[in-house]
């Protein structure tokens, strides 16, 4: 399944969550997806994203188990269905929004719980979501920078070509003149 679609599925499931167990499950799903997208982009995404994508993968991998949820213990992540990241910009934009929503939902859970263990799990997961969001935003900035450089290069090319298109120099010697 394409990354943008998985982001949408998890965002919808998070929005429909009706209690702490559901919110925790979707937070775990989002962290697993961040890891998978990071791994995918680190392995075959745009070159300028690979280092940040690798770091995103490590954040997701290091924290997916932070939330104690049956799906986490069973290792059943929707992210396992990730087949491609067709549009890195769109996928990263959606992932940033999802991670922000996860953070807000976990703040709600942390504020409502009386269980110390759950509270600290939420705090760790919030930190991970924030750090993942920072990496995603960094990758989006890198994509913006790459696009800006391409536009500038295109403009420089147009300036060399002239206002009416490509200017060609002499095609060769003129013959037949006497």
Give the SSE order as H and E letters: HHHHHH
**Overall outline:** elongated
- The overall average pLDDT, rounded, is 86
DSSP strand tally: 0
Q: How many helical elements?
A: 6
How far apart are the termini? 72 Å
DSSP helix fraction: over 70%
For the largest beta-sheet, the strand count, sense and barrel status come to: none
Strand % is under 5%
Structural Rg: 24 Å
Low-confidence stretches: none
- Structural class designation: mainly alpha
Write the layout of secondary structure elements.
Layout: H1 3-15, H2 20-44, H3 50-63, H4 70-74, H5 88-112, H6 116-161
Helix pairs in contact: 1-2, 1-5, 2-3, 2-5, 2-6, 3-6, 5-6
Structure characterization notes:
This protein has 178 residues and is an all-alpha fold. 72% of the residues lie in helices and 0% in strands. The chain contains 6 helices and no strands. The chain has helices at 3-15, 20-44, 50-63, 70-74, 88-112, 116-161. α2 runs parallel beside α6 and α5 runs antiparallel to α6. It is elongated, with a radius of gyration of 24 Å. The relative contact order is 0.16. The model has no long low-confidence stretch (mean pLDDT 86).
């Amino acid at each position: 399944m394409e990354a943008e679609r998985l982001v949408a599925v998890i965002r919808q499931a998070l929005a429909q969550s009706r209690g702490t167990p559901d919110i925790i499950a979707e937070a775990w799903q989002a962290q697993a997806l961040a890891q998978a997208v990071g791994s995918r982009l680190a392995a075959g995404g745009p070159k300028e994203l690979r280092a940040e994508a690798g770091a995103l993968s490590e954040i997701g991998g290091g924290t997916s188990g932070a939330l104690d949820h049956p799906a986490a213990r069973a290792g059943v992540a929707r992210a396992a269905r990730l087949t491609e990241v067709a549009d890195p910009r769109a996928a990263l934009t959606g992932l940033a929004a999802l991670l922000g929503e996860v953070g807000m939902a976990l703040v709600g859970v942390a504020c409502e719980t009386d269980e110390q263990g759950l509270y600290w799990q939420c705090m760790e997961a919030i930190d991970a979501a924030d750090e993942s969001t920072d990496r995603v935003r960094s990758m989006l900035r890198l994509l913006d920078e790459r696009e800006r450089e391409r536009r500038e290069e295109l403009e420089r090319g147009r300036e060399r070509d002239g206002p009416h298109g490509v200017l060609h120099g002499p095609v060769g010697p003129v013959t037949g003149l006497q």
